[in-house]
Design brief:
By secondary structure, the protein is an all-alpha fold. It has one domain. Helix content is 81%, strand content 0%. The protein is built from 12 helices and no strands. The chain has helices spanning 3-31, 37-59, 63-68, 72-97, 101-122, 129-147, 154-172, 177-198, 212-238, 241-246, 250-262, 269-304. α5 (101-122) packs across α12 (269-304). It is globular and about 65 Å long. The two termini are 28 Å apart.
């Protein structure tokens, strides 16, 4: 096996690890659903701070943090991105605890199509015909639910739009994933500590009175934040980004299965129709991506021939 093949295999394993953890994350958040979502978010950010700090020191990237504070404009933009990802995390935690995993799944199915639309609107990326059809079908799926059934999938739309906008902002900033995430955590941490010290009053808010099992679960929030991101970064370095994009459907698919078959969330007619139309849009999008990738490879081979 060549080095390239080994790298590709490692990349696939990293991608499966990242999206697998994200997909099974509802099981973890369900296990602590009795803790208010804001408190869980606080623990997620607090413990992620310590894990990321250790990783930055170990990797020798800690100096990049000081350099980042020398660029106020970039830091302000990153602060907005941090608020968006904080909102995304908070809503996801709340959705899982309140039996809206199907809505969360729908949001992360919509996300890649929204990324394509943002690329067209804000990065002047030209869309191919099938990509346009995919976006149109996704919009139609959401419109059918709103117009025909009178229900707005607001959880899915907020999750998808907040994460897509966050991704677009991060694309403009020069920070790598590890450094960027640590900076986001630093920016959010003061707000979270103010909430935790001044306003949190649940039965789990006093760590000294909690059982070691509950405290272990709360500390684990930091791990579930950092580990899949590291896996994702490892995958992105080893396999093509277009190939990595095909793995992104694993997480919402696992969420869908958990919601329907483990947690027995009702799959109403309006949601089912929207899901089917989104799945159709993603099928078009994936077919177009694979066809374009194959055409690029064939063109490259043709150029290399004498």
């Amino acid at each position: 096996m060549t080095t390239a093949d080994q790298q590709a295999r490692q990349g696939v394993l990293f991608a499966l690890g990242a999206y697998g953890i994200w997909g099974f994350a509802p099981i973890y958040f369900k296990s602590i659903a009795f803790v208010p979502a804001m408190e869980i978010l606080t623990h997620r950010i607090l413990w992620a701070f310590f894990f990321l700090l250790a990783l930055l020191v170990a990797s020798g990237k800690i100096r990049q943090i000081a350099l980042a504070f020398q660029s106020p404009k970039q830091l302000l933009l990153l602060a907005f991105a941090a608020l968006l990802i904080g909102l995304n995390w908070l809503l996801f935690i709340w959705a899982v605890a309140n039996d809206h995993i199907l809505d969360a799944s729908l949001g992360y199915y919509i996300n890649p199509l929204l990324n394509v639309a943002i690329g067209m609107l804000f990065f002047s990326e030209r869309l191919r015909r099938l990509q346009l059809w995919a976006i149109a079908l996704a919009v139609a799926g959401v419109a059918v639910q709103i117009i025909t059934f009178g229900s707005v999938p607001w959880i899915a739309l907020v999750l998808a739009s907040s994460f897509a906008t966050y991704g677009a902002i991060r694309k403009k900033l020069p920070f790598d994933s590890l450094t960027g995430l640590f900076l986001e955590v630093i920016l959010l941490l003061p707000l979270m500590l103010i909430y935790f010290i001044g306003f949190a009053d649940s039965s789990a808010s006093n760590l000294l009175e909690n059982s070691w099992k509950l405290n272990s679960l709360l500390i684990f929030a930091g791990i579930i934040t950092t580990v899949p991101l590291l896996f994702f970064t490892g995958a992105a370095k080893r396999i093509r980004y277009s190939t990595l994009g095909l793995f992104q459907y694993i997480a919402p698919s696992l969420m869908f299965i958990l919601a329907v078959f483990l947690y027995n969330e009702p799959l109403s007619t309006d949601k089912l129709i929207t899901f089917v139309m989104i799945w159709g849009a993603l099928a078009l999008y994936s077919f177009d991506a694979m066809r374009t990738h194959r055409q690029v490879k064939q063109a490259a081979r043709a150029i290399q021939k004498p």
